Structure formats: structure tokens, C-alpha cells
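Hypothesis: this fold can be encoded by more than one sequence.
Test: take the C-alpha cells below, design a sequence, compare later.
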């Protein structure tokens, strides 16, 4: 028997950093996972040999210290610094995986004036970063998960194939709702000037076609979102979108002498359709 693959490290390391501009604070909160790998890790499993095993406790301390020293508005730069640290500090570490999730703190306004140090959590989605780095390669992805979006009309689903098992009725009016997971791959040769700004542009590009165009299907929505993101942000090479189709089913009120025309629904979580696509250039 042999080891096919391994990675180990620390997960769910939580840090909150105050980015200070005089009295004006910005809160940056991340949950970080960092995993390490290299060709000499086999004996740590097969021969109880810990000589290569940088303790996961050290991994946690490294995350904390590098967050203190280097974490700024762009999580991507922090992930790259973290991976680079392990790759340069230890010869036997040749592959590092860093994954982050961000909790967003939004500055409050008091009587219309942004407050320097008070925040709420009105989070539309969870920003995520995934990095896999070696000495010579960098696969850096950013994204969002749990972006709840809904279109209450201007949506339908029709012209699909039918068979003995088909019960779904064609419709030209329905609700489309999803909790979007989207990840985009950065071209490592041409990083953006600001990851945060580019990420914001990509998020905006999701909502415009979703809002403005009649939806024939979730598939069409994902295509429109992904292609607009690729058009507007040249620094990404590929985008993956995954969307549960959170069906909102019209409730039959005819037994109660009520005509329910696209007004009262039962929102369902499961079973749900699942539409996934990766779009490249
Ligand atoms: O947008 C949709 N795509 C599908 O593939 C599908 N399948 C289904 O039953 N309803 C829907 N809606």
C-alpha cells in the first residue's frame, strides 16, 4: 500500500484585523484554512516519522503573525504571502493550499454620516479565496458563496423535452431564486491592480443581466452572468457558477375559491435543481 495524496494543516483559523486610517477603522474578518504538502510526507503516515511535520499549531501561529504583518483589504495578497512563506521557509514543503472565507462588516451611518468605528453585518454573500501554490505555479481563485438572488417575474421555462415521466408544466411566468456559488480564476501573468475592485466589478456583472433580461432558464442566466464577468474583467481566465434552483411553487387555492395568479408560493429548499457551468475564453 502507498500514500496516493496527502495534505494537512490548520482549518477554521479565525482572525479579525482592524485596518486603521487614523480614527477611521475598517474591520477585516477571515476564517482561514492552510494545508501543506511535499514529496517527503509519506513516512509521517507510514513510519510514524514526524521529522517533516511542521505542527499545525505552527501553521495557526503563522497565519496569525502574517495576518498581523500583512493582511490588508485584498485577501488574495494575504493568501499569496502565506503560501510563499511556507514554500520558502521549508525546503520539503512544495505545495500549499490556502482557503479563506470573509465575514463582511459594513460601516454604519449615523444621521447620514459614515461612522469611523461602528459596523453592522449586512452581508449579501461570503467572499472566498482559494489558492494552490507550488514554487513554480500559482492557481488563485476568488469568488462568493451563498449569494441569494431572486427574480419575481420576467422568467419562464418551456420547450424542454417531455416523456412519460414529465409532469412539469411549461410556464412563461415563474420565480427564479438561487443561492449562487461563483469562483473565478486569475491569470497569474496579469494580476489586477486591486483584487477588491475587480471582485466588485464581477459581482455587479452578475446582477445586471439577471435583472434586465427575460430568464428562459437558470442555464441562460448563468451564461449571461459569466460572460459579462469575463468581458468586463480581463484579468480572469475562467469562471465557474453553481446555482441551486430554489423552486418556489405556486400554492393551489382553488379549493378555497381563490384564484392564485403568481401571488402566493411555497418556497422550497429541497429537492432542488442544480445547474453548474464553467465558462472560459
Ligand atoms: O431553469 C431551469 N433549468 C432546468 O434545467 C430545469 N429543470 C426543471 O425542472 N426546471 C428547470 N428550470
Amino acid at each position: 500500500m502507498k500514500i496516493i495524496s496527502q495534505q494537512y494543516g490548520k482549518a477554521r483559523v479565525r482572525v479579525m484585523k482592524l485596518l486603521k486610517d487614523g480614527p477611521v477603522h475598517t474591520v477585516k474578518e477571515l476564517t482561514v484554512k492552510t494545508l501543506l504538502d511535499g514529496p517527503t510526507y509519506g513516512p509521517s503516515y507510514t513510519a510514524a516519522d514526524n521529522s517533516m511535520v511542521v505542527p499545525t499549531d505552527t501553521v495557526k501561529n503563522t497565519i496569525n503573525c502574517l495576518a498581523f504583518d500583512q493582511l490588508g483589504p485584498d485577501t488574495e495578497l494575504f493568501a499569496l504571502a502565506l503560501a510563499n512563506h511556507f514554500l520558502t521557509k521549508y525546503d520539503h514543503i512544495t505545495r500549499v493550499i490556502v482557503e479563506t472565507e470573509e465575514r463582511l462588516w459594513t460601516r454604519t451611518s449615523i444621521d447620514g454620516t459614515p461612522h469611523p468605528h461602528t459596523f453592522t453585518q449586512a452581508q449579501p454573500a461570503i467572499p472566498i479565496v482559494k489558492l494552490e501554490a507550488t514554487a513554480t505555479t500559482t492557481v488563485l481563485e476568488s469568488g462568493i458563496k451563498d449569494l441569494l438572488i431572486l427574480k419575481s417575474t420576467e422568467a419562464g421555462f418551456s420547450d424542454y423535452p417531455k416523456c412519460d415521466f414529465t409532469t412539469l408544466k411549461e410556464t412563461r411566468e415563474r420565480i427564479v431564486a438561487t443561492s449562487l456559488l461563483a469562483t473565478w480564476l486569475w491569470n497569474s501573468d496579469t494580476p489586477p491592480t486591486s483584487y477588491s475592485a475587480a471582485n466588485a466589478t464581477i459581482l455587479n456583472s452578475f446582477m445586471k443581466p439577471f435583472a434586465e433580461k427575460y430568464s428562459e432558464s437558470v442555464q441562460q442566466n448563468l451564461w449571461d452572468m459569466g460572460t459579462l464577468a469575463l468581458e468586463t474583467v480581463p484579468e480572469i481566465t475562467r469562471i465557474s457558477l453553481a446555482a441551486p434552483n430554489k423552486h418556489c411553487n405556486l400554492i393551489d387555492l382553488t379549493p378555497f375559491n381563490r384564484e392564485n395568479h403568481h401571488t402566493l408560493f411555497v418556497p422550497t429548499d429541497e429537492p432542488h435543481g442544480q445547474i453548474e457551468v464553467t465558462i472560459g475564453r
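The first helix runs from residue 42 to 46. Residues 64 and 89 are 16 Å apart (CA to CA).
Hypothesis status: open.
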